[in-house]
Amino acid sequence: MPSAGLLVIGNEILSGKVVDTNSPFLAGQLRELGVDLERILVIADEIEIIADEVRQMSEAYDHVFTSGGIGPTHDDLTMDGVALAFGRSMKLNDTIWERIRRAQSEEPNEAMKKMAIVPEGCEFIDAGDLWFPVIKLENVHIFPGIPQLFEKKFNSIRDRFSGVPIRLTRIYVTHHESEIAEDLHALLRDYPDLMLGSYPRIGEQDYRVMLTLESRDPDYLDRATESLRQRLSDDVIHRIE
Length: 241
Prior knowledge:
By secondary structure, the protein is of the alpha/beta class. It has helices at 11-14, 22-33, 47-60, 78-85, 94-103, 110-113, 147-157, 177-190, 218-231, and strands at residues 3-9, 36-43, 63-67, 90-92, 117-119, 123-125, 134-137, 140-143, 167-173, 195-200, 209-215, 237-240.
């Protein structure tokens, strides 16, 4: 299956001033598409760090996504870092500059011009009705950190990413993990390819643990789910979704 890595760039995330919501959004979207998101990394706004991590992720994964650091201010250094990662120069792109000019009610200033300076040789992917495209260099897709824009831009190009989607079944149980652990171990012995998760819940009145059973093979998932259902008594299972 295709693999992916996400690089979240911003001192504001590391300091806790801003909460990152792009990571869970992208993780859910890629899972639906069947792309395995294997790493999420948060780093500071430093060109050399960005370049190093982009280079490593680009070599390790089929798709790389960056979040943040592409605006007009002094700490927006993602473009420079991505360019450095691939040994590209930064250049004012006339097409992007003209798009920026058309999108403004008055002549844009020098700060806005910074947004038109991009890595040489990058690809522009139109992002729906947004005036600024998604910029791609090699296998790296560069996204803004603003959640509304990140989500809208990803949704506009999500069809470019596809694998075999993972199917999910949730089972809510009324017993503690320790009481069902042996049943889960036995299930995995019979279904070793099953992706099984066990998540205790505190404060829930109806159940104590949420189990997740996942597989790309719907029939395999159905058989594993039925096997676990038979292992657990009716009073243990609160509901199955």
